[in-house]
Amino acid sequence: MQRLSILGDYDPSSETHAATDAAIANSLTSMGIDMEITWVMTPEINKDVLEVSDGFLVAPGSPYRDLGKVLSAIQFARENRVPALGTCGGFQHMILEYARNLLGFGSASHGEYTPEGSDLFISQLACSLRGRVMDLSIQPGSMAHKLYQESRVKERYYCSFGMNPDYINEVKTGPMQFTGSDSEGEIRILELPDHPFFLGTLFVPQASSTPEQPHPLVTGLLRAIEKS
Prior knowledge:
The chain is of the alpha/beta class. Strand 11 and strand 12 form a beta hairpin. The longest helix has 17 residues. The radius of gyration is 16 Å and the shape is globular.
């Protein structure tokens, strides 16, 4: 049986963690398949976890207990073409791994860990998005557009950190594509072309999944794992 590893420091009281479990169940039921689903606390991420996993969901809930191990898992998924979806904190850490290992910013940092860090690719948002539902524009032809089958959607956020606008030009020099934005043009979806499934969202798609309407991005991840 194929295995999805959810990377994050599981908290049973977390709304987004409960939503993650429910969203995966909704999508699996709609697809009519079974899959082994395992939460992996970030300090427990190791080579064995990476090698037995057929896909990853990098869950909300940062700061993670072990930043380095989360980044190593994202790098593993990116380099080995393992399907991966990162939401909220997962999106932020996909940006950080990309900046360090593809763009060459070895000191790229995240403001939740090191507020005064150099090359602060992830910074505190001027206005927290926690609890907000916002409109998004999806780039036609992107993986996100193919999954949503819509150009405009609404999604819910839980974060106070996001892409630092000062580094927008830098992140656009590499292969990553930024295929979803809010009404002010801020980056909200990233994806890696020529990868079976490598996608990140600053919002939490799990939160809008229902049994009647499983979320297309979650279903997309599971379909990519099924095909792997």
